[in-house]
Description:
Radius of gyration: 36 Å
Domain Integrator complex subunit 7 N-terminal: 72-509
Pfam family, one: INTS7_C_plants
Domain Integrator complex subunit 7-like C-terminal: 1069-1239
Oligomer: single chain
Family: Belongs to the Integrator subunit 7 family.
InterPro entries: ARM-type_fold (IPR016024), INTS7 (IPR033060), INTS7_C_plant (IPR055195), INTS7_N (IPR056516)
Shape: globular
Amino acid sequence: MARNTIAVSMSGLENLADFFHHLSSECFKCLRQRIAAIEQISHRIRELSIESNITKAVSDMYGLVPGEDRLFSNTILLRLADAFRRGDNHMRRCILKVFLGELRHLSKKGKMYNGILAKHRVPNYVELLRRVKVVFDTGDQQAKSLALRLFGCWADLAKDSAQIRYVILLSLQSSHVSEVMAALFAAGCFCLLAEDFSCIILEVSINLICSSGISAIVKRAAIRSLSMMQCTLSIISSTYKAGKRLVLSSMEDDFKAEMLLTLSKLASKSTILIAEQVDLLLSFLKHESTALLKARALKCLGILFSRYACHFPINTDVLGILHNVIEDSDLTLNFQCEALRILRQIFGVIPSSLSSISVPDLSKLVLNVEGAALSASGVKRSLAFHLLVDILCCLRRAMEEHSHASPEEKLPSVCSQFQDDPEAILLTYGENELPPSANRATTLIMDYLISLAKQVMSKTNQNMLFTVFDGDLKQEYNTSLSLILRLAEDYPSSLLVALDKIRCIIQTLGNVDDNVNTECIGTYSSISKKDSVVKKPNPDNSNFPCDSLCKELDAKKPNLVFAAGEYHGESRILVVSELMLTLCKFSNASLNKLNDFGQHYCYIYLVVKHLVECIKESAPRYYDTYEIFCLCMYSHLASNRCKVISEKEKDLRLAPCNLEAHEGVTKPRYFIPSAWAVQERRALGFAKKMIRERNYWTAYRVGKYSFSKGLWFAATFVFRKLIHAVKSSSFSCWLTSLMLLAGGESEIKLLLFPKIGIELISELQAEGICEKEINVTEIDMEYLSGTRVDICYCEGKLGKICNRIWSSEETLALTGPSDGLFYFQRWFICLRAEFLEIVVGIFGFLSSHSFAMEVLNKEVGNENIHFAATTENMKTLLLGLTNKSLRLNQLAKNYDLLATSFLDIDHQSFRSICRLAFNCSMLAFCTAFAMDFSISHADKNIMPCSFRDQVSYTPVVQDLFMRLGGAGSKITAQFEQFMSFLTDKIDLFRSRTQLNCANYLDRDYLLIFQFALQGLLCIRRDAKGVIDKGELQSLVNRGLQLMYDILQKLMELPFQLPRYYFRTRHCIGAELFIFGADSGNKDKIITPPGFQLSLNLCIQLKNMLARTSAQLAKLYCILAARVSSRLPLGKGEAENTWEFRPRKINEMVQLNAILLQYLKEDAGKANEINIVNGDEDLVTACVCFEPNERGPGFSIYLLNVSAFPEGSYQINWHSCCIDTNGSHWSLLPLNAGVSFSVKRL
């Protein structure tokens, strides 16, 4: 069935008819009010123009008469044409401005233009042209010019009119400059669309340019009009050749400069001409051309490289000339800056631009740019910094592509030379080492920031006030530090250099702050030496600052408010405070990034330790800020790492695991019980201090930090205290939910580490602040770590904890209908609670089996009865674990859907959810194979073949394989041994939710996975020789013990909440509106038995705004109905609103899986693919939409319900989108599906 996909927008009105009536009446009102209001209609015209033609199906949805939209738009155009004919020149100029905006849209689309002024959308275009031509025939000279320009805006309507063409050609011979200029403008617009007219205008324009009796302004206009000869490639080529001949002739420099710009615009439309144009521009830069021509040639190079730098290799001539421009001190600063900008465009896109550059040339360029970075000019220095980072990052990306490419695809020049050229050592090292060039780049940027800090010191000594310099200084710091973070994406070790340099900046700024504070002491008593950064006084300081929490619930970062005063040192304190906090935030961001890369752990923590000590000594008044608190949490690890990390500790944590087989094991693991206890105590101490000082906002941030790091005792304390500090019920629900969740997780920690937990509870109840430094010795560590408890004996307590975590979700549900608010939080809590329930169930099966076997072994009786009972217990155990394994596998998919259902999610949160998905998938695999002895002869005698045939572990193995992209060759090789046991085919597709193995916590999960793999392989190897049931029982016991060990280790790892959990805006989603195409009653969808259901569909994105940088390319939707989902009698209508409910998650996962299968099979044939979903009861249909700029999309589809008996049924749906980067995102449904009825008409 043919599908018609279009897009329409309602502009906030109820339906399309209201929209057009409103627009038409507004136009009439504007015309009555004349000039004052006519400009307001411009954006309305633009809105109407981006809408496509409305089909009959769309018209039926909104109660429109077919063609009604075209009637209203033509009415609007006719009224504007009337106003142009009757009004004065001022009104005509205003009306022309309305259509000039639409001309930009026509210039971009060319022959593909389909806006409001497209000829096929304006049936009465002849009448429009007639009314404007009246103005040209009867008006004065200015009126003629305005009419000609309006003809240009209406090029698609007028391009085939012989009368209008004649008018334009006649005007080109006029003696009035304004009329000729207007005619050239109109002719250029026509040449965008009409090939035959372009040939005529090209000849006329060349004659005008070459004519000696024509004024300079007309010649320039004629040259500019050539740039619009773009209707076909042949016209572009002919125009370019004609223009190039003129440039190489004896034209004046002014005209040559204008022609160079025109030729560059033409060349940018044809990749064939780009190289030729570059050579032409370089010729003007090589020879002794005037400054005007050199400047214009540089500008034109920038135009070409900004659009097409990736379309051809950069040759040595380009680099050499730009290099000379930067070096030439005789050239002006503007020349040098323009050359730097062009180089940024070259190196800012793709590694392939390096394919024809030699190492010496590149090394020379890098050294030259480093010299430019020392310039006294701020613009040149900033461009040089950015260019230096661009070159280094481009080089690293090229090296990575070269290393992973096949022999025939390897980049030919620079990357190959790195293996042999001694100069290459200046640009690149090994994978983890920092090359000297990156080191120098980081040092240059940080030294510049140090010099800025010294300027602050100098101005303070001179007793000068800061005015505009304040904002510029902070902006310079932010820009420069952002460059360091960008460089760290490819060179993580550069952050270590930056962190070391920050100490010098902090020492300098600390001296500034001391001088200002000493100068002002006694003048402004509100600022003490201990704490000069304070909040504005709160009139009710005992209450929680609701404004701050409001901003937090809207996911906005509140601005810190610093001390205000009436003395002249106030602005200096403000600037120093801002810079100090900026440096601390950068330090925290750097540490998070280094943790993600997983390199140089010991050196990282030593650098942080020294940095914190520097802050404590040089700027103690900033020591109690949240940013310093985060640094201190890293600092304490620096003081304990050398004592705690040892081979003995490694063996103590994962004794059964062969650590030597793990790749990268020399990097220390992050989670250690003793280190976790110290972090809890430090967080508690700082939180208590903030609560006592009523600094509730900082306390709230400490609670967020504790959630993200798994410090659940500190989080429980913070949110329990903050609940009493708020008055709003919605805020109270939010904080109560946080407290319940933190309380449940802290109880799990208490079960795992009772002695540590009891000590932390004592800290919770203590009134004092935890100031005692904690130095954990090896003996202390053994004592604390030895207090672990086997959690398998806490099955009942874990069940109660699950109920508490469920109550956290129920608390958020009390906020009522939310339209997407708290969906992420409630979904995340549901998945956590379900995971704990499954773990409790696994413990239950393991414990019950062990108990049953103990009872049987004590009994003495008939061996046949004993054997039968043992067999039954093993069947029950295997069946129960298989069920839990499949549930865990489903839970992993739920986490995948959670990660991909929020388009504005940050990368760190995305990776955190992927880690939880891997945890579920890994546990599902271990649960499935821990009791799988199918290769044993004894097992075949006990378990019937029919039972084994019904159980397939292929989905479990498939799911885990998709997540092991970076797990390492040894782990992958061990895992592939299990894949060889399977008879079903394994899809080798890798998921983008696979584990990021650089992160410290990811590696801990991999260590446990390797421990599990080795244990499972050992059991399977021993199972081959097992014959009798006694030996089989021994294997069962080993499998049980392995499961206990795996679960114990997984539960001990820190459970951390993603940062996105605290972003509580309404989620981005979609609404689907479904209408029956064949039903006479638009309020009901009815089809006769045995027929397919014809549906009109409209999908609308919601809550998008500017919250995400993702640009959507395609929308897909799946409709589903079940024969078994017949609605009860008397309930023929479905719910109108969709609310989040835990029971709907699995349904979304199932529909999303079918939709993904559709995308894999064929993303372009929505109505031709029959998706096999494995559920005979389920009827599905997949639809593709192409939304326009306004969001909505429409489609027509047939849902095959011919097998449905009479009755009413629910249509469920789910949607997803593909962004311009090719990434798949699920879209949450924000409204419910509809119901339809099958009955005889």
